[in-house]
Fold these 4 entries.
Entry 1:
Amino acid sequence: MPADARIDDETAGFIQGAVSIIAATRNAEHRPALVRAQGCRVDPGGAGLTVLVVADQATELLDDIRDNRRVAVVFTRPSTHRSVQVKGEDARIVAASAQDLALAAGYRDAMVAELALIGVPEARVRALLAGVGELVAIAFSPTSAFVQTPGPDAGRVLEMPR
Amino acid sequence: MTPGLDAIRDCLDGSQPGVMATCAPDGTPNVAYLSQVEYIDPAHLALSFQFFNKTRQNILANPQARLLLMHPKTAAMYRLTLRYLRTESEGPLFERMRAKLAGIASHTGMSGVFQLKGSDVYRVEAIEPVPGQPLPVTPPRRNLLEATRAVALRLADAADLDAALEALLTGLRQDFDIHHAMVLLLDGGGQKLFTVASCGYGESGIGSEIAVGDGVIGVAARERTPIRIAHMTGEYAYGQAVREAMAHGALADRLETAIPLPGLPESRSQLAVPIVGGGRLSGVLYVESPQDLRFGYDDEDALVALGAQLGMAICALRADASGDLPPAEPIPPPDGAPVMIRHHPGTDSVFVGEDYLIKGVAGAILWTLLRDHVEHGRTVFANRELRLDPRIRLPELSDNLEARLILLTRRLAERDACIRIEKAGRGRLRLCVRRPLKLVEMPSERAG
């Protein structure tokens, strides 16, 4: 497993932008769980990645992370369908910082603007991303990434710089 | 108590309906967007299988999956626990999904990319609402169950097929706010559908035909399943299919005897439901709209119910073809210059003067009526005698004489021909001829 894999700058820009983020895990019986996340940040250098989720919406997912630390996250730009999936094996739960709360607020505003491009009204975006309770951060080192834009290229492994 | 899938099926409509998580045999989770989720029943759904991707590999090895859905209006989220059961690659479910996928693909600019390989069927084991702050549910523009009741009562009041078709189209306009609709009935041979009633088009298209299997309408007939498309699509454009068939195929030499199928040039939502009664397909009810996402699951349910009622009415009317004697009202004798009526025996095409009027079984019926009128002075005919008349060669198995008579009656009225057909009591008709007729039987034109 390449421990020093990192997210390239272009991909980092994409996944920190106005993209839908869905995180998934699995339990000991290999039953998957998933939740919508509310923002993402990439550590300088691209070796670490953090996504924010509402704890009450992610009970099972957080249990799975405590159990086996495996995670997969898909990032999709609604207006173009461009999609990237990033996976990790060392996910851990971290308390959200004040910067994280500001990041989530900025993310919601960016999503309102992005989804307006395809005709989704602001109220619906705010409802989808309502901050109902405590936000927590899931941090992990990306080990692999895949192109997931629909089409013949879907599933291609995204080369990760070392 | 969690809701059944039927309670949240609006979440399955739309161009990006869900995200699914699966798990590989080595324990690696995977998460991917789906392009299509199809409702089957309160405990089952189907997902489109288009590519042999990670999701597909995973569910074949480990049938457990979780699906995240969002309500398209309220943004409420639901998490579904699924178990993969099987893949279907033919039949009604597959065809329904294929037609719908073509609509989604066209809407999202993915026409060359999306191609359905199979319908993956899953059991829904649990539905869990995700905590959140969804928007309030807005009341629908109309309670469709109540609208269905209103149209069902109109249909129940109709004494014959003509009245039933009018009741249905009027009801769709008034109670469903559906303004573009047509009813097509199955030809005796079971290979073609012909338009017998329509509303909302510049040209009624009465008498126009489409092959079973062609376009949204033809596939709905062949598979006896509703086909609902929320976005415009080229692949299933029925008009185009017909035009292409006419340009390339065996119909090319008969262009002058074809009536164009009506249709919206910018159709963005389409719904075709089979008309079935007594275990037999009778035809297709088709509605369309220039709006995207105009028809939902509830519209589909309503039209399927009304299609079934019309199907039963067609069966009942077929069985009840006997009736009273006609009221004897005098018909004014024909007057003016004679009109030449030509009949081509090969196709049973009938021309009034230089104008094409009708062909096929309806053409044979008209020719028979006109001959008996000119040769024997008859004006009143019983449906039963027409049904048995060897000159008409009505297909025995699928006896749709009433539908043919309606088609003929409407076509005559539309063309403002000098010939009219009126009802003359139950099971009888009266031929009204305004001008003297000169009947000309053309020689058989067998080429080669």
Entry 2:
Amino acid sequence: MSMSLDEWIWQLEESFPSRTADAKRLLESVLARLEGENWYPHDIFGIHLALEEALVNAVKHGNKFDEAKQVHFVVRLSPEKLYVQVRDEGPGFKIEEVPDCTEDENLEKCSGRGIMLMRNFMSRVDYNENGNMVTMEKSRKRA
Amino acid sequence: MSGNRRLEVSEVGDVTVVRFVDRKILDVTNIHELGRELFALVEEQNRKKLLLNFTTVEFLSSETLGELIKLEKKVKQHTGRLMLTNIKPEIYEVFAITRLNKLFDIRDEEAEALAAFSA
């Protein structure tokens, strides 16, 4: 069930040119907000990792560091979950063609490790059909 | 030895002990610089026993894992040996999820790795 907008306690929506410095600034503002809301450090660690991977993927693999291309970043926070959307202006990719990095023959060569980490640390990770937009959610851990 | 910006390198007997300057190994440029400094230890300085102490490291991403995998290959090519120590639990989780705990020789403490090198 989707949430109505008024349940979000914080939202951030920004498009920025493909520079890691801009990605880092946005990432830090999300982490600071989660710390302010007293999310568990392990949740914050996982979100940090997943966002880092998604943003680097968009800047590096999607937009190929082309500063004429933008990364579109949406974050919404409710008391119980974090919603994130990262979209780049690259050609996208087919998620099913990314090799499984945990297979023995791929351990040393695989480049899909970032996506695997995102899937492990977030509650939900979905790609659009084009493969240029990832949507992630993290449900907040409660004691 | 000079010129390392991302690493602190010391020697314990014939083992090269490396610590990381950055607590959070993040920026893509820094990560590649880190890789170059690590590779130079093996390819230019011909160090055979390499111990990476992660005690200062609080965060790393798949970019850094990629550099560590390249390092491991280079060490093997030079018939050397690489060990990783003092990895914080959440960082170890990253190695475990990606199954890189099977690829790397990971020890709890530096002393344990030093003993294994000289065994």
Entry 3:
Amino acid sequence: MTTLLIVVLLGLSAIAFQTGRKKALRATAGNIAPLHSLPTYYGTYVALWVGIPSLIVIGLWLAFEPQIINALLLAALPGDVRGLSPAELGLQINDIKNHAAGGITSSELSPRLQEVADYYLGLRQNGLLGMTIVAVAAGVGGLAVGWRHVTSTFRARNHVERTIRVVLIIASSIAILTTVGIVLSLLFESIRFFAQVSPIEFLFGLQWSPQTALRADQVGQSGAFGAVPIFAGTLMITIIAMAIAVPIGLFSAIYMAEYASSQFRSVIKPVLEVLAGIPTVVYGFFAALTVAPAIRGFGEGLGLSVASESALAAGLVMGIMIIPFVSSLSDDVINAVPQSLRDGSYAMGATKSETVRQVILPAALPGIVGSVLLAVSRAIGETMIVVMAAGLSANLTANPFEAVTTVTVQIVTLLTGDQEFDSAKTLAAFALGLVLFIITLGLNVVALRVVRRYREKYD
Amino acid sequence: MTAMPDQDVEMGRAPAPMPNKIRTQHVSVYYGDKCAIKDVSLDIESNRVTAFIGPSGCGKSTFLRCINRMNDTIDICRVDGSIVLDGTDIYDSKIDVVQLRARVGMVFQKPNPFPKSIYDNVAYGPRIHGLVSGRGETDDVVEASLNRAGLWDEVKDRLQDPGTSLSGGQQQRLCIARAIAVQPEVILMDEPCSALDPIATARIEELIDELRANYTIIIVTHSMQQAARVSQRTAFFHLGDLIEFGDTEQVFTNPIEQKTQDYITGRFG
């Protein structure tokens, strides 16, 4: 039915396009010059009159169909079922729907309920049929209206351009509104969390143990929500990652931009960018299976006790993952330093490294800082590597050989599996997410501002 | 300051010949397969301003950049022939290009101060060549260089401001100060006034005339009036060939070659 509807509407639009175009041409006896707009604009105009009304019908149906059908279904239920508690009523309605869809139900349906199920099925089919008819009728009606508008002086181009603008505005507002929606849901869930746990305790508490007791007599389920160990773990892993990524990334960028021959550069740059294309889960098992045991072995060789899931392993691998970000962005920034500055320095008799250190890096510094900040926000938000390699225990430690946990890991563990969605434990994930969002947003804003200021200077 | 050797050289009077500072013989320059300069031989006299003129793309800047080996930074560029500075071939494999560029300074078309303070811009060369030690010596060199470039009075109160905060003409004089801070013997100028307004251009031209007392100057210019105003010797290039080379007065008033005549009278270019 739906496929048929799409085909019919597309066909109708095509017909509308042709008729609109033809009518415009006929109005001037096949002459384009006297027409206000090109013939295709008239065709598009009529086709839009087909597409938009029928799309509105479909959209309204999608938005309101479930409520209407549910209301009708509820009205058709026998009185004793309607008198059930909301939870049981919901179960019954689900059973009816599943039965209608041919799925598995929780219990055999009584004959009366089977009747209701059949009624429900009929409702849905009739609804769909009705919607299809209305949509096609709207399309045909639109075609007629649009076709009537077409005359040689009709400003079809202006109407089409305006419609295109509206479509583009709708597309961009969807993108923006989705982001706003995500932020708001994060915010509201966080507010619910902070109603149970004070923000002071969350932001400054030193004890993280999010298991809350289900029963009063349960032991070991203290439910402490001090997030400092998590923030500290995130910070440590990020610092380790940046300690790897910034020097290596920056040096390779300098090498590529200033020293490498163009052939070498054309090979090595794509190779470095392949590193950025490796899925993080692959980095994750590289960290968990190769790097972490290696570090453990190395540490034991030195007589240190090293956890098999150490901050160092996660940080190292994350650093490797981030190298291409730093090197690629820094390379672009260094290349954007005007050649005249290099020439000026070389003409003074400066060597390559003197030129890089004293002229190019100072000129490129704002851009490099921006790229590092973007890499930091990437490191803070990175999840998979730390889930696999950093561990879950919220240790407050400065020892990189111990297991630590990060904000992202905690969010994952708090929300995966069967969880009730109103406990402090799951709500804590939203509060952590909010903190993460604020930090990375802040870093990105600062980074972009720094980069922009740099651009203004040299373009 | 050393004595001015020929202060009396003015347009309209043939200058007395000076000893040669640079001799170039059979210099050809190739960019890949393309020949940019064909078999050019000319001698640059000491303490004179020599102007290279010619239409765009004639190779005059390429030839200028051979004299401090700036073309080395271009991978596909190859230089044949010999360029001899004070008796040593600068393309000899024993020559250290860092030392060569300390002796042959360069000023570019677009002012290109480094992203540093005015002070550090001037101190850059002396520092990398180890010509100064200690704050006091550096201060002296910076002041002397800015003085010679005629910029000291304008910037003495804001030496720590960034070099890019100066006006275009001031930036170009800063670049000249930067070049002379390492006490070069030769200064190459690649269209130093083409990005400047007439007043700033006049300042730079005056400065070039003063600097002639201590340095050998080679200037590439698009402006024939400028060549006539500031130079004592003029070389006219066309399509990679050296067409004519002689005293500026003779080249502009009584050229030997028809092409030179056509160019300076504005028939092409």
Entry 4:
Amino acid sequence: MSASPLFPNYTQIPTRIPLRVWQALRVISVTLTLGVAYLLAFHPEQGLALFWKILVPTLPLVFFAAPGLWRNVCPLSTANQIPRVFGFTRGLTLPVWLKEYAFIFGMAALFVAVPTRHLLFNTDGRAVAILLLGTLAAALFGGLLFKGKSGWCSTFCPLLPVQRLYGQTPWVLIPNSHCNPCVGCAKNCYDFNPQAAYLADQYDDDLHYRGYRRFFAGAFPGLIWAYFTTIPGQETALALYGRFAFTVIISTGLFFFLDTFLKVTRAKLTAIYAMGSLNLFYWFVMPGLVAAYAGLLGLKPVEWLTPALQGGLIVASIGWLARSFHHEYLFRRAATEPQTVGLSDTAKRALARQDAQGGLQVTFQPGDVQIIAQPGKTLLEVAEANNMPIESGCRMGMCGADPITVLENGDHLSPMSDEEKATIARLGRGEGTRMACCARIQGHVCVSLSADAASVAVTVPPPAIAVDRAIKRVVIVGNGIAGVTAADYVRRNHPDCAIEVISREAHHLYNRMAITRLIYGRSAMAGLYLQPEKWYEERKISVWLNTRALTIDPAARQIKLGTGEYLDYDRLILATGSRSLIPPIENFGLPGSTVLREAEDAMAIRGFAQQHHCRAAVIGGGGLLGLEAAYALHKLGLRVAVLERGERLLSRQLDARAAEFLTTYLSALGLQIVLSAEVQAVHGAERIESVVLKDGRQIYTDLFLTCVGINPNVELARQAGIATGKGVIVDDRMATNITGIYAAGDAAEFQGRVYGLWPASVTQAEIAAINALGGDRTYTGTVPSTVLKVAGVDVASVGQFEPEQPADEVFVHENLQDTRYRKLVVRDGVVVGGILFGYPQDHATLTAIAKSGKPLGANLEALRKGDWSELFANSDPASSQKTGALVSVDTADAATRIMLRSTKRKN
Amino acid sequence: MDASGFFDYPQDSAEPAQQALVFLPELGEESWAILLSFTQRRAFRAGEELLHIGDTGRALYIVGRGTLEVVLPQKRGRLLRIAHLSGGTVFGEQAFLDGQARSATVQAVTDGEVHILSLESFEMLAGRHPELARIVLMDLGRILSLRLRRAIAMAAKGL
């Protein structure tokens, strides 16, 4: 919506009255004035009646309602402007002392003229005529000498104080039509800005300037009172003037008394006095005015007209006061608006340079928010950076936390991977949906974050497998990603078997990777669920939430629930997941010492931190979860220390160099990183007060989280006689040693390895489900691919990041200026893993290359020459390795190590 | 108080405008480029609202192109403009520092572009370029200090 200026000046006030009309009115006005002067001089009775009974009592109402009207047609201002209009004004600037005292002159003239009415002007038509003509001449003379309206209208005019007092909050705004152009002749000019002028006077920094005007407001009711309480002819001139002076002093005294003791803002009292004066005046003159007008029109006024008009004026005055008070508030608000902050030319050049680089426009609906982003960024990165309401999870398109609907230009996004397609199919969303973390922008796009924009679901054709129709009941223990994926694939392949999912947790499938958000965020579980509510219902999957599977009877193919119920199964898939590994720490379990694994844990930590006003936290474990938890607590406002047992952070994901970069960044954020530190015990009376390290150091803390790894939940399987090691042992078909029972996810141990990774769980669950139904899929392992989800740092690790065999080649590229680092481990010409620090856009490519197991071919030669550009064609050109200058071959290592460093630019 | 905004007589504009505060006057172009790389760019269309009075949100806005206006919403949907923000100005610095509710609405007069430095982006800047973040904070402090001095001077003079 378009805004109107607060207190518009006369050039901003709209008007429909053309200048010609005003000019004509001015001619009429001067002519009438001369006519009145003639009447006063030669027909004083009529003249005096017209002047004192009609004209003068009407003026204050005009000042009150539409002061601009009078300012435009006033005969004195017309006279004053004649020299300017006809080009014979001297156009002098008013001397400073006159500027200061002109108002006092005008005020004094009024204060003398009013009592003199009783002595002279009320009865002597000629005197009034002379006064009128003399004033006209004075106004003309002022205009002859001084520029603009500074010779009379804005300075000496005795009516000006009254006009400004009554006209400070005009009901009808009429712009000044005299000054074209404005010559800036007067301070706080009423003709320039009629609404702000009086307020600016009240708040003028010049104590005297302000004081004269406040004095007038205070004195004016006294003048009016003195005038109307005078009985003509009862006192001497001296007594008369004396009484006027006395009354004015009383009135002013009362004003300053109230000014001192009333706790109101500055312009309120003057506004109240203004309305007091106006109503006092009409209290006295209204009967006469009504009679005069009635006489003029030849009518007989009804009795109630006078009190009705006086009452109406009181009501209007109250409305006027309310407006005036509000105007004062607005004036103060605007006048105290802080100075704006500008930019240097250097900054403007930098802005222009960035502008010239362009960028892609991403429009978010609803709200039509247009972001300009760099090509290659994911929609998730763009949305998060701009505080759009979006959730994130694995950042690999597998968890389904961040579906987004593409409304326009879907072809301007990077193509979908198989994982992303599978996730969208699991979510039951169709055409137009993308996982924001996978969709990299390559052109302008328009997307929607709102769920109801979700497109129509497309049915995914089931993989053609021969389903064993004898299978009627499938039970899945676990409602995490492995359990839900398994249920999804069972249903896709077997449309009519019964599927029972038993969930120990009280929640439907949620975004476990984002639970640290529950610590610092205030939206709790909202947005954390990964499936729509109806997902289970639509697939006829029955879920037992908050229910424990107690025992399995493999012989009877039956499972006993904690509720006492029994479930029969033809096939059983164990997706029991894992729990936090709790290292042997004395006293662990003391309130405030806990683990972080489930949503409930995270919410409990937030609750505890608030309840006990926690200020410091210690995290045991510098792995992915430990660092993400540390960051979450840091965002919650705690002072956080991360204790890592080993020599570096993320020892399962990063090499020493990358860990060093990460440590530097996290330390700069304010996290304290302590290496080679392991907790021995926690201490505290009622709740945790400190942790003691194995080397004897003690750290005071209000909260301690241990995040040292996971421990698969194998008790159920072990009790049933299923082979277990660290986890439930499975073969490459995800089958356990007992027929009909499969395992997948964190609970499963494959070739001695428990992955504990979302992508591995998805793949294993799919294979377990298909094989359980009679299919034949084999699992060959998962290339671990992880990202650290701490804002401002893009760390990703894929597969093997350290050479293991003598012939392994290692390629390292460091960019010290931008603190970027990347590393590839190549075995027999095939990438087996690597590390990316500061290259978020290359993560998907690296994962794909490592997974594919394809030889690098020509790219290997390029890499050996230090050219990474072919391999990561998406890579940000700004980080191009072309600046690399130093190539060192480190043969001390068993592997060939090609080092490439960007020279640090000096600027 | 400063009522000069209501009386910007035409011939005044020839005189040097009131000494404006400049954000990071000494910062070089390269450093500016780094700082800007931590901001989010947002395009706006004429009439679009960028900030609403009462909103909380700790972000600093740098106007790249276009003109914005600071408005106060009134009864019956009326909006009163109390200031203009043209290209090359900065706003939102107070809420960026104190996290309090926005004291006015900011909307676009023309099409244009702003660069937004959220507190989170600032944290990242501080993580990656602590020295630059320190300069930014010191300068915001300097600007607030100058404003405070002016406010004190106004109060001392106007009392």
